[in-house]
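Extended Data, panel c. Modelled sequence:
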Amino acid sequence: MPDYIGAIDQGTTSTRFIVFDRAGKIAACAQKEQRQIYPQPGWVEHDPVEIWERTREVIGEAMAQCQIGPRDLAAIGITNQRETTVLWDRRSGEPVYNALVWQDTRVGDTVAEMTAAGGADRFRAKTGLPLSTYFSSLKIHWLLEMVPGARERAETGDLLFGNIDTFLVWHLTGGPAGGLHLTDCTNASRTQLMNLETLDWDPELLTAFGIPRAILPAIRSSSEIYGEAKLEAIRGVPIAGILGDQQAALAGQACFNPGEAKNTYGTGCFLLMNTGTEIVQSKCGLLTTVAFRLAASRRTTRSKAAWPSPARWCSGFATISG
């Protein structure tokens, strides 16, 4: 029986791979920073190819540190910077543009226009989120409109969208050679395109933001076996968990009961509180989002009906550090 589990932590400033033993102690850890690209004031980008390269490197280094092979790992989980947006070619794996980081504010004018037309909270009932530069929806829209040929390629199904979790899972499971295109509901809830009631992409939202459904990944639970890694250092290891970074911190601090909360300090300051199995819309300006959803069995499931565990919800806020 394998004695270790692995965790990919792809954050705003760096990528880490950590190997944990059966006691939950760190057996090995490798970390590498990625470039922060600032084309002009308010614009923040990452190179997705560099992120994938750093991910491969830290996995290899950590596995070598503790002198283990794929058979020693029971599973791998992924946590990632949320909202950061990537569009790439499904046949080559090449991004059409740098990743637009969650901090990026280039869509500010569009936010102002949509707010004037229908109010900042026009989508909050469905998504728990106000109009903002923060979320993936308008970042995708910007890429489709501003990158030559992107919209046409998206409409014909040649492009794929993902936050960083989706981009890594696709590459880890084969990339152009059958890579899995999926995300979990915590990351999906931060795109501003998922309906909190159905836990699926919402047609009205897709129309409002001008986004073709064909580019979107399948939405799965936060804990199930999605597929197996094809990367040599971890070949055959199940990928069995995905959580957006702040939801992962909530779970990591064992905030599994309603009313329990965590605060974390990194690139930003983030407070999240577990609000239980019912959607709670804040009256004080907090955001409502998915905390986690667990699958009851190890079989791969795709439909909401196959998930016996209800989603947990959380409310919170984020303060971006200056």
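Residues 297-308, 316-322 have pLDDT under 50 and may be disordered. This feature is highlighted in the accompanying rendering.
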